[in-house]
Design a protein that fits this description.
With about 140 residues, this protein is of the alpha+beta class. Helices cover about 35% and strands about 30% of the residues. It has a 6-stranded antiparallel β-sheet with strand order 1-2-6-5-4-3, with helices on one face. Strand 4 and strand 5 form a beta hairpin. The termini are far apart. The model has no long low-confidence stretch (mean pLDDT about 95).
Amino acid sequence: MRVIFWILMLVVIAAVAAVAYVRLAPSDPSRWNQPVTAAQDKDFDNGAVRVLPATDGLLARLDAAVQDLPRTQVLAGSVAEGRITYVTRTATVGFPDYTTIEQADGQVRMLARARFGRSDFGVNANRLKGLIATVQR
């Protein structure tokens, strides 16, 4: 019985450590606030890209819409710089997703991706879809 107890304790400690790492791991702006190089819409296992024609004020409207999302904050950049990266965390564990929005070459390019895991179950594509719907109203 003692062996089972200690095995369970190790499993619990490992789970708590994993959750702590996910929640507390630093986000390096130089790693995540990079140019969005995709030129067309694309979905992939842990994220998505959307490309829109740039219009007056679109980047600022997207910035306002992203900042209205729950558990979201700016990691780096600004509208004035033409590129902004945000961190949105899940409610329970705090998994970080990174969204970069950039205006360049007559386009607004949006890249949303998960930091951890192989799949985001479509969460990032849905976030971009919602942002586009919000600014096109």
